[in-house]
Amino acid sequence: MKFSWKNILLWSLPILVISFFIWQGFFAPITNENNNNVANSRMTYGRFLEYIDMGWVQKVDLYENGHTAIIEAIGPELGNRIQKIRVELPVSAPELITKLKNNQIDINAHPTKNNIALWNLVGNLFFPIVLIISLTLLFRRSSNNSGGPGQAMSFGKSKALFQIEAKTGIIFDDVAGIDEAKEEFEEIVTFLKKPEYFTAVGAKIPKGVLLIGQPGTGKTLLAKAIAGEANVPFFSISGSEFVEMFVGVGASRVRDLFKKAKENAPCIVFIDEIDAVGRQRGTGIGGGNDEREQTLNQLLTEMDGFEGNTGIIVIAATNRADILDSALLRPGRFDRQVSVEIPDFKGRLAILNVHAKNKKINPKVSLSIIARRTPGFSGADLANLLNEAAILTARKHKNEITLNEIDKAIDRIIAGMEGTALIDSKSKRLIAYHEVGHAIVGTLLKEHENVQKVTLIPRGQARGLTWFTPSEDQSLISMSQIKARIMGALGGRATEEIVFGDSEITTGASNDLQQVTSMARQMVTRFGMSEIGPLSLENEDSNPFLGRGMGNINEYSDEIAIKIDKQIQEIVEECHEKTIKIIRNNRVIIDKLVDILIEKETIDGQEFRNIISQYTTIPHKG
């Protein structure tokens, strides 16, 4: 803060006001009451009359129009010393003056000084003057400082960040793994730089492009690259910055934003998280939001209204396209909808290469191996992965990131922080049997994914973990693959039943059983993989405004519901029996693997398969 006379006055005036009223309320009355006389004690009016009758009172000073008396008395009870005592007198006591005169007591009346009118005048004038001066200084400070609290009178102004040449430090070469989306925007940048290539054949520049994708896939990063590549003015704003508690502010900000954009056309307007302002209107759930709907109406008008916006390209990003208003999505407002998907193997490898440029990674580390181990990771996940590996490397005081740190970083991101290894031999052996059960069933089933690692080191809430290498393509899954996954999930519970007996099974399979039930139910109700037939009985889509699961209403009869439950039970029982059979037939291998796992605490997938291959044949997995 700059210490000028204005700032000092601005902060000192409220203190002066508070001090003035405190003085008026507390100290002034006491000063007027007591004046120069200070009473050490108090006395009741009845006792005062007794003192008069006993001849102990020598002098009486009356204050506050006769309501208070300060007496000077002397007597045996007072140690035969003159003392000043305060007495509150009744409102009407005409006999008191007569009694004092009859006892020849000195009486002195002190009139109240008439300062009330003066103080009322000062108080009535002082506070308004202070208020006017403070507000004047505040608004003058507002006009000179646009970044402080001085924007009190400019609610309707757009908060968009405007740059003639956006220097984000990011270009298209820094964006990897989303080649299809990047090609779309490279075309738009070319349109802005060389529009004659397109106008020669009658093509018009797109008015809007909507980026749709899961969080972390690179939507905002792509917008930054567009800003870095295009030599045109760039406006950047978040959807939440349009809406305020004051009605009409959001619509005013939209008008102001597009007014500035028209003055600088051709230009790019980027609206991040547009779902904050572009939600469906009139949903009727939980009441309306007039301010947000007014803002959306103004946005719709500005993007493709009667006037139109030539040369303005609106780019918006969201991960909630299902809640956007249909009028916002139509051609003419957003001509293109670009999906930014989770990267595939080539995309993950390209992203890792980008983020590995500023990391000291051991030359022996193969980024392709990391890319194969991380299906389903978004660009943000991969960036976080290498950063976590770098943190672990620095914590161990190493100079280079090795595959060991990357493996631990992957485990930490997926399962949580590493815990302390178990010492109790009984619990450790039980968990080892449970995890080996998962791993051996998954290994001996042709349709199941390969085992990547089996460990007894706790992570997060799990006391032990069995990692499987997921396949690259998860979009199409056969019925045999789903049943294989059910059997793999039941492997831990089945091993506990065979080795320790039904009475010794634990709660460790609770999460496994939830997955089993969910997969079996989807087979019956969504995929048509049961005796009920090829029917879709439950819809995966739900109303986003009703909350998760609240809008799912069963569209089948109670009779069908009974059949669904029966089919789920039959699928799980069939898989459970097959899993029990695999465990019994391979009990010797399981005991051997458990001993090795307890000793080493972690077994790599290849080593696990090598041990099993010494006893039985492992099916080839294509």
Automatic annotation (TrEMBL):
Keyword annotations of the record: ATP-binding, Cell cycle, Cell division, Chloroplast, Hydrolase, Membrane, Metal-binding, Metalloprotease, Nucleotide-binding, Plastid, Protease, Thylakoid, Transmembrane, Transmembrane helix, Zinc
Record carries keyword Iron-sulfur: no
Membrane topology of this protein: Multi-pass membrane protein
Active site: 435
Cofactor note (record): Binds 1 zinc ion per subunit.
Membrane-traversing stretches: 7-26, 116-139
Record flagged with keyword Oxidoreductase: no
Residue ranges constituting the AAA+ ATPase domain according to the UniProt record: 205-344
Function according to Swiss-Prot or TrEMBL: Acts as a processive, ATP-dependent zinc metallopeptidase.
Assembly and binders: Homohexamer.
Name assigned to this protein: ATP-dependent zinc metalloprotease FtsH
